[in-house]
């Protein structure tokens, strides 16, 4: 049995707790909603990428990736004298790239006995584990996609930061301002402004260890610090410890789906068990690697 509808990674919230296991298996769209609800607040991808607006029926997106600062043309404009022509200007053309859809999913089984007994605890635990595993995989792929784009810049997208865990917040040995994490926030935006990239790094992806360090250093003042810099923090174990990514939200690239999150169920008579299978087919790519800055050395 196949779900009649599918959802992208963000989806409507399933309310109410009266759904039986048997009903869920007969209406797999409800399982899809449940998984989407569980994953809604955990994905990195929908914070980084925006839709390309192109068709993905072929399972691929052809795109151009900036390899240099393309805010200006490669040749300057010139003053035209009477009878003269304006010069031909333009940014250098790059070879197009292709992003292919990736089919990620998994399945679990539940026995007929558990269905008859309406073992909702087991069913919910399996559904939650599948949702978490899908989140982990897609987030991992998002970080790999960012890393590949940063590597293509040959070091231009990497900045050495300060050790966020070594800040002395008071006393005679208090760290000076240049050694506090806020200095890295300023450093990221300074790099963009000096290079005239026209971006604002308003999203920082950090490891939970670095997030804890920020809370320790700034305490109740952390919220005000982030607001004053127009920054949102997103902590994930998929971000390597000691590393952070400063991102211009929605300007990095695209995220589309050949198939949104969808669920299928079927019964296997010979073993008297029923299967639940969920999958998603995202397509992601980085069109502007200059909208990312990778900070290293945050743990010393």
**Helical residue percent?**
25-40%
Strand segment tally = 10
Measure the end-to-end span: 53 Å
- Arithmetic mean pLDDT: 87
Shape: flat
* CA radius of gyration: 24 Å
Output the strand order for the largest sheet. 4-10-7-5-6
The amount of beta strand, in percent, is: 15-25%
Uncertain residue ranges: 1-17
Tell me the major beta sheet.
5 strands, mixed
Structural class: alpha+beta
H and E string: HHHEEEHHEHEHHEEEEE
Total helix count?
8
Describe the structure.
This protein has 300 residues and is an alpha+beta fold. The protein has helices at 21-26, 28-39, 45-48, 112-116, 120-151, 181-194, 208-218, 222-228; strands at residues 60-63, 97-100, 104-111, 158-160, 203-206, 232-235, 244-247, 253-268, 273-286, 292-296. The strands form three sheets. Strands 4-10-7-5-6 form a five-stranded mixed β-sheet. The protein has a three-stranded antiparallel β-sheet with strand order 3-9-8. Helix 2 (28-39) packs across helix 5 (120-151). The radius of gyration is 24 Å and the shape is flat. Residues 1-17 have low confidence and may be disordered.
